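User: Last request for today: this protein with KE4, please.
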Amino acid sequence: MTHNTELFARAQGVIPGGVNSPVRAFRSVGGTPPFITSGAGARIRDADGKSYIDYVGSWGPLILGHADPDTVRTVQQAAARGLSFGAPTAGEIELAELLTRLVPSMEMVRLVSSGTEATMSAIRLARGHTGRDTLIKFEGCYHGHSDSLLVKAGSGMLTFGNPSSAGVPADLARHTLVLGYNDVGALREAFARSGDTIAGVIIEPVAGNMNLVAPAPDFLATLRELCTRHGAVLIFDEVMTGFRVGLTSAQGLYGITPDLSTFGKVVGGGLPLGAFGGRREIMEKVAPLGPVYQAGTLSGNPLSVAAGLTTLKKVQAAGFYEALADTARRFTEGLCAAAQRHGIPFSAQAVGGMFGLYFAATPPRNYAEVMAMDVVAFNRFFHAMLEAGVYLAPSAFEAGFVSAAHTPADIEATLAAADKAFSMLAK
Ligand code: KE4
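Assistant: Here's the final one, the structure of the complex with KE4:
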């Protein structure tokens, strides 16, 4: 028994699956998840004392790397002044002003404690603003675990949704229409058929929850044009892409202005913080100003705000995103070259500081192509890399992340491990 296996056995006695979020249980890849005891820069260490180069970064927040000294210091200083007040603080104004400056489509913003809260609030706001009920989402996109978003495609692509989780009432799920990501035809048909009942559309502008799937040219522009024409609220879920794909997030990268945006992960710098915001006309419908209720005991928590402010100040440094994208590109290109040397069908791509790895000849363009990938090969590769001290996302259906703390030596070490792993797969 190792410390990890002992801890996992204990955890499963009192926590469902032994984890506080399902993907951490390694059920997709098999095996025992390492229990992490510390992190520093690009590395994490587990309960057995093993060190890993980390390409998960807590699923995106740790764009500066683990235990960034400036972030730790500002959080410690905030903690010494009190952990939470349940009352307004100046730091929340500073973060809101910074967010609305960095994201010009957001004239106003509300801070919450997670990405789920941000998206749940944004769709309630879209419905309250329009007085309509129908919501469109896309197959393979994940927006957190609120009921209206745990919905899978109905029997036909254009029929209303069915619950994708137990506990979600069918009566609620049927208000969510699930379309194919990058399927412009289905989008046009849905609006032609139901345009005046659609409250809003929520989309990951770069999908990162079915592995990484990039938007097809014109897909986002078509979505913007149809929402405008039919008075539907366009919600960019930038929880993952926000300040990850670039300083202007995905909306700046692709030049599309959403009506509402949601953020999480990077904006909290590793502490619990999310945000939703957008056009003043819509945001003024939020309580206590307007009729759309939304609240939170720890919303705008001073420690989360301190971590978020420090992170968002540091990512504005000259050359930050160029260096991050260069690291991600060297990583993905090096992996493809190694796979090619060993004749393994493999592809990869990066958008800013997030990347997708695919055991398929070309990157998937939609959910069906994602599902056609060789998951068995990924799982074998995952474990070979884990054994070699490289911690990838424990699922073939997740994106990965680099940080400012990943050095060229880290990338070289990772590629050396990948070469051995691909060689093993080729046997
Ligand atoms: P949280 O509630 O987990 O902070 O955010 C939900 C969320 C919303 N929108 C997008 C685009 C997201 O990627 C997420 C959460 N992402 C997952 C990673 N696939 C978090 C990891 C987990 O669920 O443990």
